[in-house]
Structure prediction request, 278 residues.
Amino acid sequence: MLANLNDVLKPAQAGKYAVGLFNTTDTDMLEAAISAAEELRSPVIIGTAEVLLPYGELSLIAPSVIAAADRAKVPVVVHYDHGLTFERCMEALRLGFTSIMFDGSAGDYESNTEFTREVVRVSHAFGATVEGEIGHVGEAVTRDNATSDRYTTVKEAKAYLADTGVDALAIAIGTAHGAYKAKPCLDLERLAAIRAAVDAPLVLHGGSGLSDDDFRNTVARGIAKVNIFTDLCLAGEAGMKEGLEKGIGYLEMRNLKKDYIKRAVMRKIELFGSAGRA
Ligand SMILES: [Zn+2]
Prediction:
């Protein structure tokens, strides 16, 4: 069934577990993620990100994601991740997405909050929820996350929530997008301090490549949503590699890839503690 972020993250925050966002660029990844959630009776967040649209155009992928969410036996949030432009966020809402992340982190604080506030106003009118980001989650490849002065502060988190009215908040505590070049070192004290100071569910981006302990530690300190994409690609690639070695055909290869991705999603769901919560 279709849900929004409030439906799945408020219980997660209260129950001290996290719900995974698994970005999907095609129906193979989509089916893998939803069947994993159904098998484990877990709420799930499925979506795509603006930077992934060249690999799966929004107007084409949206109807399949929404149809799959609608018929699923567990709550499924259809989330537009890292919306970079107001226009694309509005398109996602029109297409039926139940949740938007607006990423205004490229601009200054004033323009970030101004645009975010506007996205919140329209999204709430659609019954959709909004995630915002304060601080800067870097790119693993350039290691610009190494500069801890871009991590989220308690003061920034409180001000940003008050200024924008977002439903969930992504914070920067040392994670990065993409595949990590060096072992990430997470600022858990900062996370605990932010958790104690604000009410909104907190989101961890750049989850691919973190250790099991990183997830246990961050979820225990109040992370309610974790974003995963790169790990699903790696799982799919491993499936395709095995298929090539076995010399199987296209359709069998597709199923093998899907099974690999499904198992990767199931592992994350178990780790986040959301199994059995739907
Ligand atoms: Zn992200």
Observations:
- The chain has one domain: 2-272.
- The domain at 2-272 is CATH 3.20.20.70 (TIM Barrel).
- Confidence is low (pLDDT under 50) at residues 141-145.
- Residues 250-272 form the longest helix (23 residues).
